[in-house]
Prior knowledge:
- The protein is mostly helical.
- The chain has helices spanning about 25-30, 75-85, 110, 150-160, 165-175, 185-190, 195-200, 205-220, 225-230, 235-240, 245-260, 265-270, 275-285, 290-300, 310-325, 330-345, 350-355, 360-365, 375-385, 390-400, 405-410, 415-430, 435-440, 445-455, 460-470, 475-485, 485-490, 500-520, 525-530, 530-540, 545-560, and strands at about 40-45, 50-55, 65-70, 105.
- Strands 1-2-4 form a three-stranded antiparallel β-sheet.
- Helix 15 (about 310-325) runs antiparallel to helix 16 (about 330-345) and helix 25 runs parallel beside helix 28 (about 500-520).
- The radius of gyration is 28 Å and the shape is elongated.
- The termini are far apart.
Amino acid sequence: LFSSTNDSIRSAIKTETMASTPSLSPADKQNRNDQKVSGLKDINYKGIYYDFWRDPNPTSTTAGSLRRLRGGAFMDILSSRKENFKQGIDEASTRRDRDQAAVLLAKKKQEENLNKRRAIFNSSRAMAAPSSLVPEGSGGAAEPPVTLNDLPRLVLGLKDQNLATRYKSAQDLRKLLSIEEPPAAAAVEVGALQPLVVALQDTSTELQFEAAWALTNIASTEYTKQVVQAGAVNPLVQLLASPSPDVREQAAWCLGNVAGDCTELRDIVIDAGAVDPILANVRDPKSLSHLRNTVWALSNVCRGKPSVRKDVAERSMPVLTTLLLQCQDQDTLIDACWAFSYMTDGTDDRIDLLLEKTLVVQALVRHLSSKSASLVAPVLRTLGNVITGTDEQTQVVLDAGILSQLLPLLQHPKKSLRKETCWLISNIAAGSRKQISALLSEPGLIPEVLQHLAWGQWEVREEAAWAISNLCMSKEHVQQVVELGAIRPLCELLTASDPNLVIVVLNAIEAILQVSEENNLDYDERLEDAEGLDKLEELQGHKNEDIYLKAVGILERYFPGGEEDVGED
């Protein structure tokens, strides 16, 4: 079916000094695993795809280039800087990473249902009821619509001894919960959850299906935890092995909503044994809808911080790899690639799970040229996660040809993709000298980053600043970066309101001036021509102590003359 179907940076910090590349200890790496940067995920909400923007969180700004981490306590980093302040720029080169950030949505209800899907009523999805479940005397006549006033009656009907009555009550309740704004609160308040959970364990697959559908829509609201507390998870896991494909699909859908709510509920789903039966359904789907919903559920089972357990990643990765290499359905690929991004958002051994087959990285790189931004986003995030790993892991991605794919992404109409691309480039720029040279040798790439640094939208400029600053941490490449025009746009960012970003820019300027001094170049004059000296002097009055100290250190070392008294003519 895969071949015939048609339509969460990580805690690995790498230091590289100017002359050597020692590794940080695991404890040091973990200490950096606290920074967030924004990103994009296209998700299916009420059957329609929406683009959601993730807000940026401040990233750590230790001196030197960083491969940034997912996670965040900037003040802890500042304290560390105060204790270890240096006038020079012999700081370590590390890689940054990011975490899932808070999402800004147009409506509050969209935010609450970010990683959930509601099963809107569709007659083609409904299971045909056997004649034994059709109430006598119905005769096919049109029935009056179910309203909120019917809820108490429907809950009583769910508890009736007659199967046909229970089925009809569950069906009517499901229809009521399948509207645009489902009355989940009212259903919970009248006590519908417990009889629905009991219905999951009935011998009638038709009743199981209706109950699972109703619970799916309740779980898509803020009442997900109440669904779990009512005991729905274990029966739903059992239904993943139902002889009915429709019941299996609906059970996976409901569990996906539960797992997508928070990591606490995600782990409850995992501990209930849901992973293997979900994988079994992904391997053997009976329809395109079945495949899509089970892969989406698997993606939600893999998402969240702390990262999903390694054994879950180990079991899921081969199945997802098969999907990536064989499946042609774009919706399925999107969710599979989000699952990859979640599972590679961890330690280096998580990345190794992805790299076991080189064809996977090659396939991901090819998808960067997709016309679908919804597919490019998780692919870019996954490859970015890999690049936050070791130099060897980064090299696998470079060898797959990613550099030639990046320039079009820097020019993409979606801001989030331009920003994510700058983030990925900044982490390559924190790599080995060979990798930095390859980055600078890619035609048009760094000039485009500099364009974003000078004129880009603010969030993109921030990431571009990281990229250029990281490049400047390699002495042998500073002259090349300066000749491409880095000084003026860097100086413009000295007035930024974000202290994190200002320190990143100060680090780059300090590195440039050190190379200028050592090689008798005129970069100090160029900086003054770009009004950088005036801005540095203004930073001496900055309220942030680290910015003040850094600015003073640069001025005292590279512009020691200060103001001179001017005599009369």
